């Protein structure tokens, strides 16, 4: 069925579910509890799920105990992430005991794995709806079946070539917004589950993306982050010949007081054109998240990353030459199967050379079904945690010295919230460093010029200018 017809059909289901839920909630507004795990792509999916739930007449709550509908949107990236989800689903058994009419749904990346769906089927019989990453737009239909048939609903797979545009979105914030530009991943890095649970790369039509950004800016959003597992390969398979740099230029051409970011960039597809585009733009932050994963070329080859240490460092050199103020962050995996301590030391030396603003660091987690899960992994977990601590220490020193250098400078900060612990406003610089400073609530959601007065490790403190 074409996407537009499918969406129309779902709207009819949504109206029916709204009527049924209203009766079930006995005149009150039914409430939904939605918890999203994992990356920003999942957060963006969660916002669409909330959009559909709002269309089905739901209000939202942070308290599972007062919810009529509970949904967990899950992540499969590491074993620890999955274990946390299993623990939290298990805990819902008591909620269901107290409120037998509550509907429970579990969706997201974990559900695209057969063994996980099977475990939910057998171990958690109180879960009513299970669905995967390709069918979120069919939530109204699944809800309808669950409430009218009182049967369990399992809907997984069904990857299609078409992207369903036009789903309602209920965004979590009103100053920062996520805009997905592409779905899926074709890279099959040997450690990674994402290509199996998110399917093949599919790019959204550029006009749809530009229009979404234009509407967000008109609504007053101050920061837009474009999302994709590998935004640098944006455009593959579209009828129009377009690459990511061109997409950025089209968005950047929209007038207004806003910032543009994007993630994630894969180094194998990052081009000089990309850095030139950032440097020449009006709105794109001089900031890039460019995961290197390892600083050793043999390990990178085993990871199937398709670049080596030299290519990575060459990119960084070019980028810094173009933008001396460029802020770079990265992801690192410690203890990939077969990695030796000497090879790990190459990662340390790369980190020292690049001087990342911050790092997201992970100990390798074996994901069933991936290539790396079959590789020999002789180094003990305990040993890997030692390497991990060493890495953190090196990065902490780098981040602290970078922050210390910023004392005395003035920075444009997008204020996000108030830190409840110390009462200070809290936001981020263009380089994505956290800044805290005193000020009134009216500044939340606005840009503010701040003079940096103090560096507390990797968090800055300052005062408002003017
Ligand atoms: N598409 C992005 C990464 C998405 S997953 C990219 O290619 O850069 C986010 C991060 O999780 C990865 O960059 C990697 O560092 C980490 N990760 C993915 N699979 C992992 C695994 N099996 N074990 C440990 N870390 C993993
Ligand atoms: Fe995973 Fe690699 Fe795809 Fe990133 S590029 S999502 S690490 S397979
Ligand atoms: Fe996790 Fe899926 Fe994102 S596995 S990291 S939520 S794409």
Describe the structure.
With 466 residues, the chain is an alpha/beta fold. The protein has four domains: 3-155, Rossmann fold, CATH 3.40.50; 173-285, Transcription Regulator spoIIAA; 291-405, 2-Layer Sandwich (Transcription Regulator spoIIAA); 410-464, Beta Barrel (OB fold (Dihydrolipoamide Acetyltransferase, E2P)). It has 13 helices and 19 strands. The strands form five sheets. It has a six-stranded parallel beta sheet, with helices on both faces. A five-stranded mixed beta barrel has the order 15-16-17-19-18. The protein has a three-stranded parallel beta sheet with strand order 7-10-11, with helices on both faces. Helix 8 (244-252) packs parallel to helix 9 (272-280) and helix 12 (341-354) packs parallel to helix 13. It is globular. Bound molecules: S-adenosyl-L-homocysteine (SAH), iron/sulfur cluster (SF4) and FE3-S4 cluster. FE3-S4 cluster (F3S) binds next to helix 2 and helix 6.
Q: How many β-strands, per DSSP?
A: 19
Q: If you average the pLDDT, what whole number results?
A: 95
Bound molecules: S-adenosyl-L-homocysteine, iron/sulfur cluster, FE3-S4 cluster
The backbone outline, from C-alpha atoms, is globular
Q: Count structural domains.
A: 4
Subunit structure: Monomer.
Subcellular location: Cytoplasm
Cofactor: [4Fe-4S] cluster
Domain Radical SAM core: 171-402
């Amino acid at each position: 069925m074409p996407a537009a017809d499918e969406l129309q059909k779902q709207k009819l289901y949504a109206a029916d579910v709204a009527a049924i839920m209203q009766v079930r909630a006995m005149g009150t507004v039914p409430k939904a509890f939605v918890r999203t795990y994992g990356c920003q792509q999942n957060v963006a999916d969660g916002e669409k799920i909330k959009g559909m739930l709002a269309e089905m007449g739901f209000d939202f709550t942070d308290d599972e105990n007062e919810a009529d509908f509970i949904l967990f949107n899950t992540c499969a990236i590491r074993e620890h992430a999955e274990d946390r989800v299993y623990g939290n689903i298990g805990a819902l058994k008591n909620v269901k005991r107290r409120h037998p009419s509550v509907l429970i749904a579990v969706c997201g990346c974990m559900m695209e794995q057969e063994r996980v769906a099977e475990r939910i089927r057998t171990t958690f019989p109180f879960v009513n709806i299970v669905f995967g990453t390709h069918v979120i737009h069919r939530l109204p239909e699944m809800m309808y079946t669950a409430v009218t048939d009182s049967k369990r609903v399992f809907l997984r797979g069904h990857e299609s070539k078409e992207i369903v545009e036009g789903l309602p979105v209920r965004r979590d914030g009103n100053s920062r917004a996520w805009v997905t530009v592409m779905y899926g991943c074709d890279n099959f890095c040997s450690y990674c589950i994402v290509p199996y649970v998110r399917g093949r790369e599919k790019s959204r039509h550029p006009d749809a993306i530009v229009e979404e950004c234009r509407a967000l800016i008109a609504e007053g959003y101050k920061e837009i982050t474009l999302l994709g597992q590998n935004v640098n390969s944006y455009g593959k398979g579209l009828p129009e010949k377009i690459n990511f740099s061109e997409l950025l230029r089209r968005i950047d051409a929209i007038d207004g007081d806003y910032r543009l970011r994007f993630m994630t960039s894969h180094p194998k597809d990052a081009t000089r054109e990309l850095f030139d585009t950032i440097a020449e733009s009006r709105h794109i932050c001089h900031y890039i998240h460019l995961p290197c994963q390892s600083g050793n070329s043999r390990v990178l080859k085993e990871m199937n990353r398709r670049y080596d240490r030299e290519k990575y460092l060459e990119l960084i050199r070019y980028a810094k030459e173009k933008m001396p103020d460029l802020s770079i962050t990265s992801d690192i995996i410690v203890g990939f199967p077969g990695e030796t301590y000497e090879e790990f030391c190459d990662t340390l030396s790369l980190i020292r050379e690049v001087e990342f603003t911050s790092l997201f660091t992970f100990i390798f987690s074996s994901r069933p079904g991936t290539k790396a899960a079959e590789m020999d992994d002789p180094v003990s977990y305990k040993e890997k945690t030692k390497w991990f601590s060493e890495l953190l220490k090196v990065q902490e020193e780098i981040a602290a010295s970078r922050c210390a250098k910023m004392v005395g400078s003035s920075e444009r900060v997008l204020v996000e919230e108030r830190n409840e612990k110390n009462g200070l406003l809290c936001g981020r610089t263009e380089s994505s460093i956290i800044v805290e400073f005193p000020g009134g609530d009216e500044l939340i959601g606005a840009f503010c010029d701040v003079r940096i007065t103090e560096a507390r490790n990797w968090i800055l403190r300052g005062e408002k200018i003017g």
